[in-house]
Amino acid sequence: MVWKNVSRRLNLKNRIQLFAILIALVLISCEKEAKILVLELDIAELVCMDGQKIFEGRILELEGIKAVSANIQAHKAQIRYRENQVSAAEIQTHLGDYGFTIDDVPGNVVARGRLPQCCFSQQTLK
Fold it and tell me: Which of 9, 36, 67, 77 has the fewest beta carbons under 10 Å from its own?
């Protein structure tokens, strides 16, 4: 009964707008929640605080990154990301473009030369 009264009072344009809003609400509520995935990487240049800060700053530039945890003692990083916004391959490519060696794959040589000297242990210089 209430809907009939509301419907009578609304003109066609308002009915269409109301219908569009209802459809949008249904679509938004049905949208799948993106999974949060974890990517673990060996980063050879994670040997100093400067390298850690640069690494974390570069990775947080990407959309979809939820959290970054870097361990300079183990030269490892753990990255939490939304699967519908960024992929593991995009993350690795992005870091490689900034010169980081990921899982024994050297990054961009020019960018690598811009990293602070303290980022290179004796092992990474070989």
Answer: 9
> H-helix or E-strand containing 37?
strand 36-42
What's the structural domain count of the chain?
2
**41 in the same domain as 9:** no
State how far the Cα of 98 lies from the Cα of 113, in Å rounded to an integer.
10
pTM of the model: 0.68
Each of the 126 residues of the chain gets a pLDDT tens digit; together they read 555 555 566 565 666 776 777 777 666 665 566 788 999 999 988 898 988 998 899 999 999 999 999 998 999 999 999 988 999 999 999 999 999 999 989 999 998 888 889 888 655 444
Q: Are 77 and 68 in contact (CB under 8 A)?
A: yes
Q: 109 is written with which tokens? A: 């040589």
